[in-house]
Specification:
The chain is globular and about 50 Å long. It has a seven-stranded mixed sheet with strand order 3-2-1-4-5-7-6. It is of the alpha/beta class and 254 residues long. The chain contains nine helices and seven strands; from the N terminus they run H-H-H-H-E-H-E-H-E-E-H-H-E-H-E-E. The protein has a single domain, classed as Vaccinia Virus protein VP39 (Rossmann fold).
């Protein structure tokens, strides 16, 4: 009860005050010693060449580069978009959107015009360096054309999208509380149903969960809709918990 009340007060204050230092910046780091396995080195070369990441490789931090490679890896493996004059993509729960470059690079390869939106309900959460998520996200998307970071509740989004990416949704109450969100915003089924409604006919949603308990709860939330589920390889960036990916195509076409 105390944690719930504290989260409610803290969430209200940070969204009211919206404090942050300005002009977040990360210096580039050398990639001369990435300590990749042989398989990772080969896959890195393929992804860098396929998605034009050479400039980004030279102008990024090591951890940012590896996290974006990981993002490109699972998008490249589990999506096969047909080339289109225009694509619209929504990323849900973007946090500070450190992986935006990977998403953008992937989908831009398959479209003349890409519109990429990221939505985050807790955009003004403050880090120990006194930058908030919104300010950091502005740095990560500053060179990505037609890319928007939206500090809002997913339920207020009403555009239609060809693809939706949702990494680590809160489907269990404990992580939701741990990350400082009020209980009143915990409605995973309602959020999923709304996200699904935003998909265009034939559109695809990828959802990534961590741990078997969250993956099983995600399965329950998806319900009777047709889906495929995959266990993700731990590649480029080693995450603490197992990760599972759900692929859902609107209408059930697999």
């Amino acid at each position: 009860m105390f944690d719930s009340l504290k989260n409610t007060v803290d969430f209200y204050l940070r969204n009211k005050i919206r404090f942050s230092r300005k002009n977040y910046f990360e210096p580039s780091e050398s990639k001369s010693d990435l300590q990749l396995s042989k398989d990772e080195e080969e896959l890195e070369k393929i992804l860098v060449d396929k998605y034009g990441l050479l400039e980004y490789r030279e102008n990024s931090t090591i951890i940012g580069y590896l996290q974006n490679l990981y993002t490109l890896y699972f998008l490249d493996k589990y999506l096969s978009p047909e080339y289109s004059t225009s694509l619209s993509v929504l990323d849900i729960g973007s946090k500070n959107w450190f992986y935006a470059k990977g998403e953008y690079s992937f989908f831009k390869r398959y479209s003349d015009k890409l519109y990429l939106d990221g939505v985050e309900i807790d955009a003004y959460r403050l880090y120990s360096n006194f930058y908030n998520r919104y300010e950091v996200a502005k740095f990560y998307i500053k060179d990505l054309e037609n890319t928007s970071y939206i500090p809002d509740n997913l339920l207020n989004i009403n555009k239609r999208y060809d693809y939706i990416i949702w990494i680590l949704p809160f489907v269990i109450i404990q992580p939701h509380r741990f990350w400082g969100l009020p209980d009143k915003y915990f409605y995973p089924k309602k959020l999923f149903e709304h996200a699904y409604s935003l998909l265009k006919p034939g559109g695809t949603m990828l959802i990534i969960n961590q741990g078997k308990d969250e993956a099983e709860e995600q399965r329950n939330i998806i319900g009777e809709r047709s889906f495929e589920v995959f266990k993700l390889d731990s590649i480029f960036y080693k995450y603490k918990n197992e990760r599972f990916l759900y692929r859902i195509i609107k209408g059930g076409e697999l």
